[in-house]
Write a structure and sequence with these properties.
The chain is of the alpha+beta class. The protein has helices at about 20-30, 30-35, 50-60, 110-125, 140-150, and strands at about 5-10, 10-15, 65-75, 80-90, 95-100, 130-135, 155-160, 170-175. An eight-stranded mixed beta sheet has the order 1-2-3-4-5-6-8-7, sandwiched between helices.
Length: about 180
């Protein structure tokens, strides 16, 4: 089984998920606040969903479609979240979508910002992409703040339009490869 390269930051180690993380993933995800911020997370987070998601992440990594990193604390290995890139190569566009979640207990400690910066660097270093973008629901400004702090710039406001699969008012940010400065 191939795995993503480990990424080290001051406080964090980012690594591939394994099935041994499933219990912790379920524990971190099983909050209404978590599910309400994206279309992709269900609440309640059913038994078996974490195993299924980790398996899916592994398959997507193998076929080059995505890389998801388990965000862990370097101090003791505790799993606190996920940051991932979804590669969307539709020539002439070569870009990736950034996504993330951090367990509620660990919010507002700068962990998502620290992890997402490392994942941007990984994306631009290891993949042939020109830009990385991210979307957040207008009512979730903490996510928008992370995008600002990692150097992304505002692109557009996308009003709710279920026909285009925008189920809430959404805001998009982006960073181009030549704008990214590794710190
Ligand atoms: C969004 C999320 C990943 C942020 O993780 P985090 O580790 O707390 O992020 P950071 O600590 O790096 O940064 C959070 C920033 O948002 C700010 N913030 C928090 N709540 C806020 C609010 N209601 N309005 C505006 N800013 C807010 C914090 O003050 C901080 O900014 P600062 O450093 O300038 O003070 C986390 O809240 C989360 O997992 N939420 C649920 C899932 C989710 O929303 N995923 C993203 C979907 S697009």
């Amino acid at each position: 089984m191939r795995t993503a390269p480990p990424l080290y930051t001051d406080r964090l180690l980012l690594r591939s998920f394994t099935l041994e993380d499933a219990v912790d993933v379920q524990h971190l995800m099983d909050y209404p606040d978590m599910a309400s911020t994206t279309d992709e997370i269900e609440y309640p987070y059913e038994d078996g969903a974490a195993e299924e998601w980790i398996q899916w992440c592994q398959e997507c990594f193998e076929d080059g479609g995505r890389t998801n990193f388990a965000v862990t604390l370097r101090a003791d290995g505790t799993l606190i979240g996920n940051v991932g890139l979804n590669f969307r190569i539709h020539l002439p566009y070569k870009h990736a979508e950034l996504g993330y979640w951090i367990g509620k207990t660990y919010w507002n400690c700068g962990y998502c910002t620290e992890a997402a910066k490392a994942v941007l660097a990984y994306g631009f270093r290891e993949h042939d992409i020109d830009s990385i973008y991210a979307n957040y629901f207008k009512r979730n400004p903490a996510s928008g703040r992370v995008m600002q702090k990692i150097g992304m710039h505002y692109v557009e406001y996308i009003p709710k339009d279920p026909k285009r699969h925008y189920f809430e008012d959404t805001i998009r940010y982006e960073i181009l490869k030549n704008e990214f400065i590794e710190t």
